[in-house]
Amino acid sequence: MNEETEIQHLEPGKKVGLVVVITGNGKGKTTSALGIALRAAGHGMKVCLIQFMKGDIHSGELDSIKRLAPEVELHVKGKGFCGIMGNPYKFPEHRKDAQGALSLAKEKIASGDYDIVILDEINNSLKLKLVDLEQVLGLIDNKPAALHLVLTGRDAHPEVVFRAHTVSEIGEVKHAYRLGIAPQKGIDY
Ligand code: ATP
Ligand code: MG
């Protein structure tokens, strides 16, 4: 069946639990996921956002997202990006935190309490082997049919991309960082 035939058979307005991947080297992956949470909260939808490898920098959303409660909840797991300059934690500590985030994700996905679960930075966590491919595919393959699952982060695995319905790759055209400009409040964190 070609794509055109498939599209003609779709039921208009039918609720489909999507797998959405936001990847690429450009800026805007996490902020895009936050935008989804903001949008969904307006519909009274329940959103669970779990951040992998975060927790070192106090980003504005940690506070502002509380204003979207009870629709949106945020769980920050980790000690910052693994392997980047200035991060003092060793691989086993990052892996332990990522595994904790994954267990939480599994629990939240299975609970049936959410319309959307967002796993922020899970793609790069997989690339860095903080979580395993089988674990991530397990989350995707066993999710409730109506649940939307959003996976963000650089270097999305081809198997994850293969399973997704919507994949955006954000390319870096420019980044202020390359001009030696420090991260700016409200834009970068
Ligand atoms: P944001 O959180 O702003 O949406 P992101 O999720 O797409 O960014 P990450 O890879 O998670 O990007 O990086 C988070 C931080 O690194 C942000 O402060 C972002 O501005 C910055 N950043 C993103 N892309 C680049 C880049 N190409 N070079 C340097 N820093 C970057
Ligand atoms: Mg990000």
Describe the structure.
The chain has 189 residues and is α/β, with parallel strands linked by helices. It is 35% helix and 15% strand. It has one domain: 3-Layer(aba) Sandwich (Rossmann fold), CATH 3.40.50.300. The protein has helices spanning 3-8, 29-42, 61-64, 91-111, 122-127, 133-141, 158-163, and strands spanning 19-23, 47-51, 72-76, 116-120, 148-152, 166-169. It has a six-stranded parallel sheet, with helices on both faces. The longest helix has 21 residues, at 91-111. Bound molecules: adenosine-5'-triphosphate and magnesium ion (MG). The site of adenosine-5'-triphosphate has 13 residues, from α2.
Helix and strand layout, with pairings?
Blueprint: H1 3-8, E1 19-23, H2 29-42, E2 47-51, H3 61-64, E3 72-76, H4 91-111, E4 116-120, H5 122-127, H6 133-141, E5 148-152, H7 158-163, E6 166-169
Parallel strand pairs: 1-5, 1-6, 2-3, 2-4, 4-5
At the fold tier of CATH, the topology name is Rossmann fold
Strand content bin: 15-25%
Briefly, what CATH class?
A: Alpha Beta
SS summary, helix count: 7
Which runs of at least 5 residues are low in confidence (pLDDT < 50)?
Answer: none
Please trace the helix and strand order, writing H or E for each element.
Answer: HEHEHEHEHHEHE
Mean pLDDT: 93
User: Shape from CA axes?
Assistant: globular
What percent of residues adopt helix (DSSP H or I)? 25-40%
* CATH arch. level architecture: 3-Layer(aba) Sandwich
- Class derived from helix and strand content: alpha/beta
Widest sheet, order of strands: 3-2-4-5-1-6
Q: In angstroms, what is the radius of gyration? A: 17 Å
